[in-house]
Amino acid sequence: MPKKRNREIFGRADLMLGANHIRVRCEDGVTRTGRIKGKIKKRLWIREGDLLIVVPWSFQDEKCDIVYRYIRPQVDWLKKHNYLSQ
């Protein structure tokens, strides 16, 4: 779950831009350019439509870091327990 005190929010991968950048549609209604952090760059494959946890940058609100990707069973569980509005 996103930690509000760390400014984490849900986002949906919208478009792959290349070079570890993805356009992300966030739950607050803003479309941001997301950057896959080096820690998860080699471990996760992110595709369009995936549910993500992102952290918006404090100095540029139109950019964010991607910190986690949910897999299909996790997304189903979140929908079942009403954590997602979609």
From TrEMBL:
A UniProt-annotated Pfam family: eIF-1a
GO molecular function, one term: translation initiation factor activity
Hydrolase is among the record's keywords: no
InterPro entries from the UniProt entry: RNA-binding_domain_S1_IF1 (IPR006196), TIF_eIF-1A (IPR001253), TIF_eIF-1A_CS (IPR018104)
Keywords associated with the record: Initiation factor, Protein biosynthesis
Domain S1-like: 1-71
Role played: Seems to be required for maximal rate of protein biosynthesis. Enhances ribosome dissociation into subunits and stabilizes the binding of the initiator Met-tRNA(I) to 40 S ribosomal subunits.
Family: Belongs to the eIF-1A family.
Protein name: Translation initiation factor 1A
Species annotation: Methanoculleus chikugoensis
Biological classification of the source: Archaea, Methanobacteriati, Methanobacteriota, Stenosarchaea group, Methanomicrobia
